[in-house]
Automatic annotation (TrEMBL), chain A:
Membrane topology of this protein: Multi-pass membrane protein
Lineage: Bacteria, Bacillati, Actinomycetota, Actinomycetes, Propionibacteriales
Main localization, broad class: membrane
Assigned keywords, A-Z: Cell membrane, Membrane, Transmembrane, Transmembrane helix, Transport
Name of the protein in question: Sugar ABC transporter permease
Any single Pfam family the record assigns to this protein: BPD_transp_1
Entry keyword annotation includes Lyase: no
GO cellular component, one term: plasma membrane
Family stated for the protein in its record: Belongs to the binding-protein-dependent transport system permease family.
Location of the ABC transmembrane type-1 domain: 67-276
Automatic annotation (TrEMBL), chain B:
Organism, as annotated: Kribbella sp. HUAS MG21
GO cellular component, one term: ATP-binding cassette (ABC) transporter complex, substrate-binding subunit-containing
Source species, domain of life: Bacteria
InterPro entries: SBP (IPR006059)
Region (Disordered): 28-49
Entry protein name: Sugar ABC transporter substrate-binding protein
Record's signal peptide: 1-20
Length: 286, 437
């Protein structure tokens, strides 16, 4: 009987297991294996290179800069997106006129593919684009945005937040709406102001969805690719060369697939370290 | 039974390891392509390129009429993503691509990687049907890998109304009296000062080697690649430095706009926002629908230097993973070696057919693509292909070269010091080519 149940369970699980193996495990193992090889076009043939690709990468200026840029980006973009999503979620769960309409407008960019969003923003950031038009109206000087080494990362963060905050906000709205009405009413009766209610009531009670949003947002931001490819190609001077784009560039533009696979392994390791760190921090809170 | 349950993932893992082990062994079986099975005589083949579908409708229609039973479906991949997507799909031995467009300088690396079918049996016919340059750029290691479909050149487009407003006499279409870049710059500034245009000069592909090579070559800077194996960077020559200093300064001074790239450049000219625009033969028709009044002149050169113009374009190649190589070959031959077929590839896009016979019929028509505006285009095209055309360098490392240089051009455009950036490019190229050697 138990055997039959096991078989049935396996039959149900099989498609998922096959997908897991084909789409996740095989490419992962393949990347690790291939990262130890190298290939010469002139000599022909694939040779075992050991840790050569890794040492080459670490010795390379571009890779080190790319890691630096990615870490800086991660440190900046995630808190900004999580805080903005949380504030918007709090705002849009208030009983106020038009809250639903605003909520829909904030969620709308999710429906736009990242590539299309990037194209829209490429026009906004143009020297004669919308952003400079607004600055001009406000009497402020025009800005170079994507063509300036010091503004490019910030410009990408704004664009990615435009795409992302609506999505993350949804999870937080769901979390806030799960807070029992009595708790909120009790806080109101106790005379807690809006700030006090947000910090002392809502924030602690949405900690779990907040933790999920932080981790998922971090992972998704570590894998940002389309806007970089379309808008900046990693420039100017490598200041927006995020790791995921660098991997793609090495693999398919430069054509050095083995070094790119070594970089993928490092990117995954970096992601794991950051996410593990976040879990540890969140657990420490409890 | 429980043991069997565990055996399944273990087997999957073993298979995964096996697959992973085989996964990367692609690519190096290059030059000794086995005699491929031509596949079925009838069916549907897939043709992949960057141009929009209308471009190839006439040639596909003509081919299908001539070859009943064979259908051709066209897939477009945008230019910006084309090379990378193709690398990805070809290295995965994707049989969903039968015929694809090959950028000529990339032939050697694509052939070396085993991404092209050897077409050497057509060598004699190809030699007789195309210019020596077109023939040579499609060969690598004494074999023929792709057939030239198009050729190109570049023109200096100018906004007649803006120049009139600035009281500047426009350049002539006579190649013997072509303007210098210095003249273009001065006239462009006058147009800006007169309030006739926002910008003085703009290039259609401001970060592409194809369009910027002539700047350095005009000053004797060379192609940027040297050495017996064509794997030694040479982008720090005086010519390259001077050319890039001039180029960077055009953006720093506001003569050309920063932050506009990709396919947003043409509309800047068509909207009347720039006095001079460097573009290809395709623009002869595209700008025809714009409201502004314009004309064409030959590509400028630097004072004291020599006139140099870009050349070359797409060729057609066959994917070795294709299971229908017989039909694919028929299509490739029709679109390139057959003069009528080759002409059909240029009936919606105004590009120059590579087939000499087709070219003879095509060039005289160029003068009338957009009425009086395109007057002189035919003579310019004929002159440039004979006297000033310089192809992009043939190197097995060209793909890396083009990618590294595109980033360098972008940075120089955005204000990075040209000398230090070219030095950096040399370092990057040396590093990228180390793995090839």
């Amino acid at each position: 009987m138990r055997q039959r149940q096991g078989l049935i369970a396996l039959a149900f699980l099989a498609p998922a297991l096959v997908c897991l193996a084909v789409l996740r495990i095989v490419p992962a193992i393949s990347a690790v294996v291939e990262s130890f090889y190298s290939e010469s076009l002139l000599r022909g043939g694939r040779v075992f290179a050991g840790l050569g690709n890794y040492t080459d990468l670490l010795a390379g200026k571009e890779f080190r800069q790319s890691v630096g840029v990615t870490l800086l980006f991660t440190v900046l973009v995630n808190p900004i997106q999580v805080v903005v999503s949380f504030l918007l979620a709090v705002l849009f769960t208030q009983r106020a006129a038009g809250a639903r309409l605003w909520r829909t407008l904030v969620i709308l960019p999710i429906a736009t593919p990242p590539a299309v969003s990037a194209v829209i923003w490429s026009v906004i950031y143009r020297p004669d684009g919308l952003a400079n038009g607004v600055l001009e109206r406000l009497g402020l000087p025009a800005q170079p945005f994507l063509t300036s080494p010091s503004q490019v990362l910030a410009s990408l963060i704004v664009l990615l937040s435009w795409i992302g905050v609506g999505y993350w906000m949804l999870f937080l709205i769901a979390g806030i709406q799960e807070i029992p009405v009595e708790v909120r009413e009790a806080a109101l009766l106790d005379g807690a102001g809006p700030w006090r209610r947000m910090v002392s009531v809502i924030l602690p009670l949405v900690r779990r969805p907040l933790a999920f949003v932080l981790v998922a947002d971090t992972v998704s931001n570590l894998l940002v690719f389309a806007p970089v490819q379309i808008l900046t190609k990693g420039g100017p001077n490598g200041n927006s060369n995020l790791l995921m784009y660098d991997v793609y560039n090495r693999a398919y533009a430069i054509g050095d697939i083995h070094v790119a696979q070594a970089e993928v392994v490092i990117l995954v390791a970096l992601t794991l370290v950051i996410v593990a760190g976040q879990f540890r921090l969140l657990r420490g809170d409890q | 039974m429980r043991r069997n349950l565990f055996a399944l993932p273990a087997a999957a893992l073993a298979a995964a390891l096996l697959l992973a082990g085989c996964g990367g062994s692609s690519g190096s079986d290059s030059s000794s392509a086995p005699a491929a099975d031509p596949g079925p005589e009838t069916g549907t083949i897939t043709f992949t390129g960057t141009d929009n579908a209308e471009t190839y409708q006439p040639v596909i229609k003509a081919f299908e009429a001539k070859n009943p039973g064979i259908k051709v479906t066209y897939t477009q991949i945008p230019f910006d993503q084309f090379n990378a997507t193709m690398q990805q799909r070809l290295s995965a031995k994707d049989a969903g691509i039968d015929v694809y467009t090959v950028d000529e300088p990339r032939v050697s690396q694509l052939a070396a990687k085993g991404f092209l079918v050897d077409l050497s049996d057509l060598d004699g016919r190809v030699k007789g049907s195309f210019s020596a340059t077109a023939y040579e750029t499609n060969r690598f290691r004494d074999k023929l890998w792709s057939l030239p479909m198009w050729n190109s050149t570049q023109f200096l487009f100018y906004n007649k109304t803006a120049l009139a407003k600035a009281k500047v006499a426009p350049p002539t279409a006579d190649p013997e009296q072509r303007w210098t870049w210095e003249q273009v710059e001065a006239a462009g500034r006058k147009a800006m000062q007169a309030g006739a245009t926002k910008y003085g000069l703009f290039m259609e592909q401001p970060e592409a080697y194809y369009q910027l090579q002539p700047l350095a070559e005009s000053l004797g800077g060379g192609s940027g690649i040297e050495g017996d194996d064509a794997l030694t960077p040479a982008v720090e020559t005086d010519g390259w430095k001077k050319a890039m200093q001039w180029y960077g300064a055009t953006f720093a001074s506001g003569l050309s706009p920063r932050g506009i790239g990709g396919f947003q450049t043409g509309p800047v000219f068509a909207n009347g926002d720039v006095a001079f625009f460097v573009g290809g033969p395709w623009d002869l028709k595209i700008f025809g629908s714009s409201k502004i009044d314009w004309g064409v002149a030959p590509l400028p050169y630097f004072q004291g230097g020599k006139p140099v113009t870009p050349t070359g374009s797409w060729s057609l190649g066959i994917n070795p993973a294709s299971k229908q190589q017989g039909m694919a070959r028929k299509f490739v031959e029709f679109a390139t070696l057959d003069a009528a077929g080759n002409l059909a590839t240029t009936s919606t896009t105004t590009i120059i057919p590579a087939n000499l016979e087709a070219q003879k019929q095509y060039t005289p028509k160029m003068d009338a693509f957009s009425g009086a505006k395109t007057a002189g285009a035919a003579a310019i095209t004929a002159y440039e292909s004979e006297h000033t055309a310089v192809s992009r360098p043939v190197s097995v490392g060209y793909i890396q070269f083009e990618e590294v240089m595109a980033k360098a051009f972008a940075d120089i455009r955005n204000g990075t010091n040209p000398d230090t950036r070219l030095h950096e490019a040399t370092r990057q190229l040396t590093e990228a080519w180390r793995s090839i050697k």
